[in-house]
Amino acid sequence: MRNLISVSVFLCGLFLSCNVSAIDETDQQESMENSQSIEDLTPDAVYFSLADFKANEVVGELENPRADYGLGLGMEYIFNDYLNIRYEMLVVERKYDTPAGISGGPFTVVSDDMRMSSLGISVIPVIRYAVSGFEFYMCAGLGFFWSNLTLTASTLGLPGSHEEKSQDYGTQTMVGVGYHFPGTFLGFELRQLNLKVNMAPVTSVADHDAGGKIILFVYRLQF
What digits encode the pLDDT tens for the residues 206-219? Predict the structure, then answer.
């Protein structure tokens, strides 16, 4: 009887030990899968850009664009030697002359210029070719842009402002070249921003060209 009890205890202990080992292996496998999922979501690079933005002119509506610039921030996923995907936030600013027909009334003085800002979130596939440290690339992307047009004025000496907002899809096409340094990349890009905005009644037509050409200096930090 005592031997039977000993054998039973031994078998129970062996069964529990096998179950604990199986649970530990399952936990380790799940932990590795979770780590792999996190790594898949981590970008291969992040980049910053400073831009000189040359806004398009619309005669009689958005005239004499000036004081225009842009800033960009994005992350990049490298799929292979020839294809990257960018997720980018781009801000562009510009000033225009205030249209001649804009008036705030007999006691209001409207400023001679108005400012427009556009914030866009874009997805941009990049086709690239690297040789001897240099990288040449071309890409086209689709984004959604939030634009804001602001006019300032004063009524009997009291300052005020008027705003019009527009939300629109926009596209970008671009070519670029740069050089790889250890862990970093420096480059230049030439872009075309295609963007139509609705700023009525400040402008008389619903869809106006608010895009333009962009020259960017790009700094990329590679992981």
Answer: 788 999 999 999 99
